[in-house]
Each structure stands twice: as C-alpha cells, then as structure tokens.
Amino acid sequence: MNYCPINDDKVKQHLLNLIDFLFKNVISEGGDGDALWYSRFYDVKDILVLVQEYNSKLKFPWEVKFDGITINWYDNQEAVIITNDEKMYNEWPSWGIIVVKN
User: Fold this and answer.
1) What is the DSSP annotation of 63-80?
2) Which of 20, 44, 69, 95 has the greatest CB tally within 10 Å of its CB?
3) What is the rounded CA–CA span in Å between residue 53 and residue 11?
4) pLDDT digits over 15-48, tens only?
C-alpha cells in the first residue's frame, strides 16, 4: 500500500495534534479509556516515531509496543491503538471511547 509521507512540519504537527487528542481523551476516562486510530493515509511505522516523540515528553511515559502493523500505546487499562489493519477497525468493540478513521 502507498501511504502519504510525513515530510513537512505542517503534516507532522497535524498528526501530533491528533496523538495529543487521543491521549488526553483516553486519560480523561479515569483509568479505563481506550481509543483506536485506523490510519489509511499514513504508515504506522512513520506514526510510531511521532508517538515515541510525544511519549518521551510525558511525565509518566506509557509503554509502546509495535508489531509491524499496529502500535499499542498503553498504561494499565488505558490504551491508544494505532493501526493500518482495516479488520481491527471493523471489529473494534462498540464500547470503545474514541474511533478515528483517516
């Protein structure tokens, strides 16, 4: 699949804003929040760099795991999942707090 490059500051800032939105919404759930971002336009390998950058600036960084198609960014029961896997998006449970498809 061909993905859009993250090759300028405007795109990078846009994606960092989305990462910030997802993180803040998950933690606002008070211990049981989750979010899914199904990225159709950006490769999760490129997004991983941005998640790691954002995470490194947190007072209490979360765990980041990457399996080649999905980023699991989490702390206990709070998690942000970022994936290029359409099946995961289609099967995401209805109780999920946030679902983003872009």
Assistant:
1) EEEE-SSEEEEEETTEEE
2) 44
3) 15
4) 999 999 999 999 998 877 899 999 999 999 999 9
Q: Is 83 helix (H, G, I), strand (E, B) or coil?
A: strand
Alpha-carbon span 58 to 69, nearest angstrom: 24
For residue 65, give both structure tokens.
């795991």
Q: Which residues contact residue 16 at a Cβ distance below 8 angstroms, ignoring those fewer than 6 apart?
A: 50, 53, 54
Tell me which residue of 88, 68, 70, 72 sits closest to 80, measured CA to CA: 72
Reported pTM = 0.94
Query: DSSP string of 4-43?
Result: ----SHHHHHHHHHHHHHHHHHHHTTSS--EEEEE-SSS-
